[in-house]
Design goal:
The chain is an alpha/beta fold and 214 residues long. It contains 10 helices and 5 strands, in the order E-H-H-H-H-H-H-E-E-H-H-E-H-E-H. A 5-stranded parallel beta sheet has the order 3-2-1-4-5, with helices on both faces.
């Protein structure tokens, strides 16, 4: 393989993990681990979370709708509190930003592919804390803008088309297995991000580049 582009998920990859924030909130409430993620997965593609990420549901409408999804699954949560905790976790990871700069410096294209949501204000940018990250990427693909969300294969094809590469010429990093599975089916090389440092070592091996500024 001779990669021409690298595509990064944001939360849990370039940014801190919202999944960790959700897990901490579940522990605080005393509900089963991974409950929220199961609700998200089991209600897709018509549930509140899916609709939020496709830009079909405003945040204020999302809160009661997702709480109802969780209640139907057996537990009460405060969606607004959970989303606030998630937002606090979304801080940039310096090592990832350095790696992105090195990749672009080597002449490869770099894209962001994120499931996110829009603010309540009709014309504002998405509110997941990613606006300042745009300058680091050649292409920035957002579920709430496109009306598509991972793992729908159409959003991966869209990202590749905007990067002007075939899926087989792209490497994709994400922290969620189902998102990676769809990418692999299209022929993309995938890397699951559990520990960022380990993921970057794997990416170095795939690209044949040093991504460590030290």
């Amino acid at each position: 393989m001779n990669p021409k582009a690298v595509i990064f998920d944001l939360g849990g990859v370039v940014l801190g993990s919202p999944l960790h924030a959700i897990a901490a909130y579940e522990r605080e409430l005393g509900i089963p681990a991974n409950f929220v993620n199961r609700v998200v997965a089991e209600t897709a593609p018509t549930g509140a979370w899916s609709r939020l990420e496709r830009g079909e549901l405003a945040m204020e409408a999302f809160y009661p709708a997702f709480e109802a999804d969780c209640r139907a699954a057996g537990h009460e949560i405060s969606a607004s509190t959970m989303m606030e905790r998630m937002s606090e976790a979304l801080l940039p990871r310096p090592a990832m930003l350095c790696a992105i700069a090195a990749i672009r410096g080597a002449g490869l294209r770099v894209g962001a592919l994120t499931n996110n949501w829009s603010t309540a204000a009709e014309h504002e940018s998405p509110s997941d804390g990613t606006h300042a990250l745009r300058k680091h990427f050649d292409v920035f693909v957002e579920s709430s803008v496109e009306g598509l969300r991972k793992p729908d294969p159409r959003i991966y094809r869209l990202a590749c088309a905007r990067l002007e590469v075939e899926p087989t010429e792209a490497v994709f990093l994400d922290d969620i297995g189902s998102n990676l599975k769809s990418a692999r089916k299209l022929g993309m090389t995938t890397i699951k991000v559990v520990e960022p440092e380990a993921a970057l070592v794997e990416l170095e091996a795939v690209l044949g580049l040093s991504l460590n500024p030290g």
